[in-house]
Give the backbone structure.
Amino acid sequence: MTRIVACLTIDTEPDCDARWKQRVPLEFESFLRGVPLFLRPILDRFEVPPVYLVTPGMLTSVECCRLLKEELVKGAEIGSHLHVARGIASCQEIAKGPRGTYMCSAYPDEIEYRELKDHDENIKKVLGVKATSFRAGRYGADINTITSLSRLGYTVDTSVTPGINWAVKGGPDFSGYPEQPYFVDTENKEFSSASAKRGILEVPVTINGKRAPFLPDKWLFYRWLRPSFMTGLELRALVDDVVGRNGDRGIVVLCMMFHSMELIPGMSPYVRDRLSQKYFFMKLERIFGYMRSLNASFLTLSEICDLMGEGTNP
């Protein structure tokens, strides 16, 4: 019998505006208010342990760190999330600049490794935990990113967006990548291969083709397990399709994502007012409830890695 496993991953960053421009000086209302007031009651109701993939800017806020530690006690996982040039010392200055770059193409390998290492060490210092899961900012990871993560003791990456080609913007091309978790073949420098038997587990964001075949080949027109811009019916149909397509597997993984900024109106392009905020949380509750009706288990990324077991591809 196929087991359905679901994971909630949240890119956790300082506040932005409706154009995704980070606010200066850094503000944190979306996380500090959004999590305890709106998100946490839903997580408790459906027993969902979130994975907060945190950026360096979050670690500069004492209140954010306090809340993250409280979330840890409630079963959350803290992972790492890093954009280009978001170093600790410069995060206020970088917030004024552009965000349109990808780590895997913007940095030489050793500089990318150093950036990852600095953020990893700061998570340990400030939050007292060793992060083992990672998502690259704007999904900008390649095989060298995964190799660096392996050197740093990470066990899970969740940067792959199956079927989407970011190359036109300078990012990776994930066309033809597996849609279900697989161990990355770092030995042969192959990011898209599902032939490895151990190493870092890639847990792709759940994406299943275009919303309609005639739509342009843009990321927004793909079917994401993401309540930001998908309708409730689309989310449910996506879950059904992914489970149906992978019915011959022992485990089917559903990886949802959204940003912490989407919890409060006016801090993302998707949740612009109170009405759209209400709709966002309504969709979130309904898809959690539907997955529960399918007997899905909600796990963190590290728990999924443990479940898969080193040495066995799902």
Q: What stands out?
A: Residues 35 and 230 are 21 Å apart (CA to CA). The two ends are 14 Å apart (CA to CA). The chain has one domain: 3-308.
